[in-house]
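Slide 14.
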Amino acid sequence: MIQTGGTRTIETSDENREIIVDSENNPITEKVIMPKIEGAIIIAQGGENATIKANIIQAVSAVTGLATHKIQVFKMSN
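Slide 15: predicted structure.
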């Protein structure tokens, strides 16, 4: 008799972690993972001015690495 079908592999993981602390009993960070930024919305005074809007977009793009088309600037209402 011929058996058909796939195989199944079961993997399990069991982690034990120790928290390492400094001399003041503060935990020491092992790794920091920054979130991925998909876009930005900025509300600013002067956001209706094309020059100010362009300057804000360029600044945010430089700091975050976002493409300029993923950054929106809007006028702050009073």
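Speaker note: The chain has a mean pLDDT of 84.
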